[in-house]
Amino acid sequence: MDTQKVVLTNKELGLRLAGLLRLPDGFDLSKDYPAVVVTGPMLSIKEQAQSVYAKRLTELGYVTLVFDGSYFGESQGTPPLPGAARRQRIRCRGRG
Questions:
Q1: How many Å separate Cα 63 from the centre of its chain?
Q2: Above 80 in pLDDT, residue 67?
Q3: What is the domain range of residue 73?
Q4: What single string gives the DSSP state of each residue in 30-70?
Q5: Which of 44, 67, 73, 93 gives the lowest tally of CB atoms within 10 Å of its CB?
Q6: How many domains does the chain have?
Q7: Is the distance from CB of 31 to CB of 66 less than 8 angstroms?
């Protein structure tokens, strides 16, 4: 199994997302392979639950991709603050 780090783009937010592309043993670019994008629980990172499933699927001959969602793991971004917290942060910045 060959695992490659890849970078994807969340075009809506303009953020780079970190991913892992796994290719089965003996991968041949001239052949067709089944492929699966494996996502995990909402707050997880690519090395957690989804990688367990992706590795097994790759062992079975699938090309798999897992990635950190926006704001998580190695992906870019800081989540937007909810209304009240955001207003407080702006007020604090204004005092400095």
A1: 16
A2: yes
A3: 2-95
A4: TS---EEE----TT--TTSHHHHHHHHHHHTT-EEEEEPPT
A5: 93
A6: 1
A7: no
